[in-house]
Specification:
With 137 residues, this protein is an alpha/beta fold. Helices cover 35% and strands 28% of the residues. The strands form two sheets. It has a five-stranded parallel β-sheet with strand order 2-1-3-6-7, with helices on both faces. Strands 4-5 form a two-stranded antiparallel ribbon. Helix 1 crosses helix 4.
Length: 137
Amino acid sequence: MKFAVRYYTKTGNTKRLAEAVARAVGAEALPLSSPIEEPVDILFLGNSYYAFNIDPEVRDFVRSLDSSKVGRIVNFGSAAMLNSTYKKVKAEADKVGVTMDEREFHCKGEFKGLHKGRPNEEDLQAAAAFARKIAEG
């Protein structure tokens, strides 16, 4: 199987998770500015809520995906207040015909002192274990 890892972050929290996911599946964690150019079976997509929605960059990235190049998206991320961005990302993926895996990883993320130190080492290990489980099928 071929994997790609892309992420969007404003605080660095999702980048740290993306790096743990990428190491676990033997891929490189790249920002959304790096398009998916070669076919991948699984795209691990890291993102979070900003102002109660996914960032426009995440929305535009998902809309730019070619369903013939991306088998499915696996969502992951962190947030201080809200939980999963799954429904928002899936709504965009549905528009371009890319399948969303039902499984996702989410943990708390530090923001303005709330959830200080998160994601922590335990969170990073959990993200890596999650990615390995997905990769193994």
